[in-house]
Amino acid sequence: MSEREVHDGAPNAGEDPATPGLPAGDRSEVAAARLRLLTEARRRIAIYQPSLPADVYGGIAEQAELRRLATSGRGAEIRLIVHAADDALRDQHRLVALAQRLSSVVLVRTPLEEVDLAYASSYLLTDQGGYLFQPDARRADGRAALADRAAQAPLMQHFNEVWERSARASTWLPLDL
Questions:
Q1: Which of 42, 74, 89, 169 has the fewest CB atoms within 10 Å of its CB?
Q2: What pLDDT shows up at residue 152?
Q3: Global pTM?
């Protein structure tokens, strides 16, 4: 993919021109794309995030959308794969509290295999065919679309494969004392 396609919001290969890409070339555009995708999701999302810095899924608006999704009723599901689950717990990331309160809907797993732990990209996938993909999770650039199932499909396949090989993030489970 060319630099132009990543930064100017032009449609990606295979994307329907009627649903143009969302801008995702810098930190504020990535955050806006993430929030827009969360807002457009109906019941299910999948998130692959190697680490969880406080500004990723931790803002008030993002938390409100995640809460809305988690409490949207039958079929609601938020699946999250995070490499550094213990770090997010130690840093008291807001997503941890949501996962503990709604542990039957917010499902968190941690990869076990080296090939999965070496994966440095991050992405958000919605049930509406939307996605935000960042080739390097530490950098604030990527590509996004509200509805592009063709571009989303390989990411969803990767997510499902890693999900099956991963273990439940037991450190995030609520303590029943």
A1: 74
A2: 97
A3: 0.85
Give the CATH number, domain containing residue 38.
3.30.870.10
Rounded to whole angstroms, the Cα distance separating 9 from 7 reads 6
pLDDT of residue 175: 58
Residue 53 within any structural domain of the chain: yes
Tally the domains of the chain: 1
Q: Which domain holds residue 125?
A: 3-8+21-169
Q: Is residue 99 part of a domain?
A: yes
Longest dimension (CA), the chain: 54
Classified as helix, coil or strand, 32 is helix
Residue type at 97?
A
Q: Is the pLDDT of residue 72 over 80?
A: yes
**Rounded alpha-carbon distances, angstroms, from residue 19 to 82, 124, 130, 147, 150:** 29, 17, 10, 6, 12
101 within a domain of the structure (yes/no): yes
Count of residues for the chain? Answer: 177
